[in-house]
Amino acid sequence: MRDIFSLQWELNIHTLANAGKDFVATMNDPEQKLVWIENYRKALSAELAELVREVRDHGLSTQNGKVEIVDMLHFLVSLSQIVGVEPGEIPPFRFDANGESFEACALRAFLGLDDLQSSLKWKWWAKGGGFKPERAKSAILDLWDVVSRICAVFALDFQELKKIYIAKNRINFERQSNNYNEDTKTEDDNRSIRI
Length: 195
What we know:
This protein is globular. It contains seven helices and no strands. The chain is 67% helix and 0% strand. It is mainly alpha-helical and 195 residues long. The protein has one domain: all-alpha NTP pyrophosphatase fold, CATH 1.10.4010.
């Protein structure tokens, strides 16, 4: 897990530098930290929605489903780094789903994302509130457990997950170096990942 955290750190530095931002300074700025927790939370939610769509359209045996799980992992690691979840705190990955369905896992993931959002003062009209770091950390750890369960449902062990992550991380670096954007977005490079 430490390797994945290190690779994600490097990618985040590179990605934010392309946007004219300093990732380390952002992590240390209390106001920017909250902005980026929300940015990564939204991105993780979008990847989860893409995974749900992939499973709906193609079932659990799809290669792209595993890539979507890794896309979720990128943002979960980023969130972990921002709220201070260390690799050693992440619960061990499961090896079997114990009869748990993908749908139940997806629902738990969306609820975990909602818990994370609730750790921020996002209701601008509400009095009180403020960032609750322990609640954010708890939500992130719950999301790690859910991702582990999703991996089990897909029969995706940690070694295969790490292999796909490394391949996708390389693709993400290439995308950033080639001015990747919504107008030029394609999934062709994802299809090059061998599973």
